[in-house]
Specification:
The chain is mainly α. It is built from seven helices and no strands. Helix 2 packs across helix 4 and helix 3 runs antiparallel to helix 4. It is elongated.
Length: 160
């Protein structure tokens, strides 16, 4: 994998993208905007399942409105994140904090997708079960962890 990362960061196409300052800034803005969309929509859904927000609407109605935005945010963050990663791929690959960030983001995305997907079933029930609320709470905690891990990558490893 390290050889692939080294090849990636020495690829002429990646070097050209990285040396273009306006394009680099565009990818950063796209990455943060995508992350805000992804995390924001997931947190709203988690808070609805927990009964802390949007009580006037059913979980299925909120999920129906937010799912397209969640997937748009995920696509934006993934595509832009790949280009941001590519410029210093070997350094990112070797940074333990970056690996932790990616792991936490992946697990948080899985939990968030489960909550979004099951929201329609939970909305049909007279009340949301304790298991569903626990799942939403874990999703919320994981997203907080993902944000904290993301901030720490450059702070601890110096990469990014």
């Amino acid at each position: 994998m390290l050889h692939f990362c080294e090849w990636l960061e020495h690829n002429s196409w990646i070097i050209a993208l990285d040396s273009n300052v306006p394009l680099s800034l565009f990818f950063e803005i796209m990455h943060y905007s995508g992350f805000f969309l992804l995390v924001g929509t997931t947190v709203v859904m988690d808070l609805r399942v927990l009964g802390l927000a949007g009580r006037k609407e059913s979980p299925s109605a909120i999920a129906e409105q937010l799912v397209p935005w969640m997937w748009t945010g995920l696509a934006m963050a993934t595509i832009s994140g790949f280009f941001m990663f590519s410029a210093d791929a070997a350094d990112f690959y070797l940074a333990g904090t970056f690996r932790i960030k990616i792991l936490v983001v992946l697990v948080a995305a899985i939990f968030g997708a489960i909550v979004q997907r099951k929201a329609s079933r939970w909305g049909e029930l007279p009340s949301i079960s304790a298991g569903a609320k626990l799942l939403a709470f874990i999703s919320l905690v994981l997203w907080i962890g993902a944000i904290l891990a993301s901030v720490e990558v450059p702070a601890i490893s110096g990469v990014g």
